[in-house]
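Mods, move this if it's the wrong board.
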Amino acid sequence: MNKKRYRNSLYEPREISDLRELINSSADLFGNKPAFLVKDVHGEPFRPITFSQLRMDINALGTKFVGMGLKDKKIAVIGENSYEWVVTYFATVNGTGVIVPIDRELPPKEVANLLDRSGVSAIIHSAKLKNKVDESLQLCESEIPYLIDMEQEESTDDRLSFYEMIKEGKQALMSGDTSFLDAEIDRKGLCSLLFTSGTTGMAKGVMLSHENLTANVYNMSKYVNVAGGTGLSVLPMHHSYEMTCHILTGLYQGIAIAICEGLRYIQSNMAEVNASVLLGVPLIFENMHKRLMRQAKSQGKLEKLEKGIETSKRFRLYNRPGICKRMFADIHKALGGNITHLIAGGAAINPKVIEDFQAMGFPMFQGYGMTENSPILAVNRDRCSKPDSAGTPMPGTEIIISEPDASGMGEVLAKGPSVMLGYYDNPEATEETIVDGWLHTGDYGYFDDDGYLYITGRKKSVIVTKNGKNVFPEELEFYLTESDYIEEALVHEEESRAGEDTVIKAVIFPNYDRINTELEREADDDEVKEFISGIIDELNDEMPPYKRIKRYGIRKSEFIKTTTRKIKRFIPENLECE
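Not the wrong board. Structure tokens:
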């Protein structure tokens, strides 16, 4: 559904003051309904864990934490998405101390650096990460008293068992220990320390409070209602987008959250759990879109599918879901047949992907945020959206455009209850980012006449030509990757020779499979260059002179990315051509 009459409508969620109240109120409301769906072994069916069981496990582990002397301490969690990861998170923040989520894909040296910088007193890790944790500890300057394995059956001299700790915590609760349950929650104090993407030397520790997080959940729920459905958790939980927008908001609204078995199983898991909600980064949805188109082509149905999409757009059939489900029945069946929300975030997405999914009867929209705002600043309403927009500012969040140019574009600044407390142990960076209460996002953007926000690019990546023109690399990358023959692209400024105008260079990772299919054989390097050169020439013909790409290079391998699949712009390896 995407109707203008809902442009100013809001849902009316319940108020919550902190994350403990979020869990307790949801357990009271949803009790024996499944909060999580998990798989113990691949190939077996998903197993439900109720809201009541979740609350009991959180309270038991939290009680054990406090009994171990971890009150007001920092606890690190590192591992794959899991029920145990979530229990650790809440058992820490809801009465023990401060949670420090660590990206499981970081190398041991960087993990060690973050452990030292944050000063954690315990690490809870998955079994798969045991060796990495051990290697990281060898590099740590400080000693960490407690190591806890999520899957180890029994405690040993060097490792505690997660489930033995829960068992002991339950016994303490039954004996009358209320130290965790009665612990005072400082809703304005630090409860979550999140390190931003990047190399360790650049990573900043974002400090978030209960107030920051619950305000984001509460206000986002005025725009988006997923209650009663089932979500598939795909993105890493250490990232604020997945944790706040899916886990916290999903539990708050009472959905069941299925833990995806991995990226390769997204489509099959969606069908298994009859998923209604999927949050993802653009790459996930763009790949899903490409896969659907390839399947239609292989079955000789591409022309029919494309005509159906255009018909749906022309007659706005996305507001008549019954018709769309019949028109695109095979695709709905492949994705589980129950999708009510496809939500894109983490980076800009090709609006055509949103338009096509909507036309096929899959409600889809995007939002905009950053970890420093817990993370959402703006989002489209689920009943009224614009495919190419980040949406409107969330209730309670004020957004202004700083020093706009003649077109209304400038840096996006935000103020509201979800703005972080600051950067951990880095007052200088905090003062640069939060000025007079305004969060300086570092993103350029503008508002349209309806109050919808559009993000045009990052301030630190913008290329300023010698004539004072602004060129946003993200725009050129978007147009380049619209080609079927380009998989990924990174645009940057290259040093120019004396007297030469600004040089814009594109580093390209071609879609070698598509090029080989087109030639019906494996392309050599010169043929690949010919394909790419032609695409760049066509793009340049559509661009004003100051935006034209003057040089390009070709990579044989994909770019190095963050765990949320965003290309790391500012590392030398990604600027190299092969």
